[in-house]
Prior knowledge:
Layout: H1 5-58, H2 63-110, H3 115-145, H4 151-154
Helix pairs in contact: 1-2, 2-3
Amino acid sequence: xxxxxxxxxxxxxxxxxxxxxxxxxxxxxxxxxxxxxxxxxxxxxxxxxxxxxxxxxxxxxxxxxxxxxxxxxxxxxxxxxxxxxxxxxxxxxxxxxxxxxxxxxxxxxxxxxxxxxxxxxxxxxxxxxxxxxxxxxxxxxxxxxxxxxxxxxxxxxxxxxxxx
Length: 164
């Protein structure tokens, strides 16, 4: 029988408190991942809105304007796929971080030696998030290709009204 039961209880509370402290970094990382996910979803929504507007006009367009819209809709379709990939990678990364937090607590509660698994999962989460960031950069570059203002608009001069 333990002569100091209160001390054993405090030791257990101390271990849980230490585990919570260890889990705070991954939890803050989850908050950052959530913010990035929010940015990706916002971009996806804007891409979809733009694609719907182009789709409405594409069937009635002709000539160079039609060709320009077809090219734009193809880039928009590609951007949707790329941003969806970034979202997927980010969500899988977040799931890996959640597993890290769960394993931190499980290891503490059950005395399991899961340090290697935690390190592997955390590394995997970072690799997935790095891939998501790289994919996001690709989407930004794709988006900047169709934002350029055409020369005929940039150098368009208004016709002079001869009545004045």
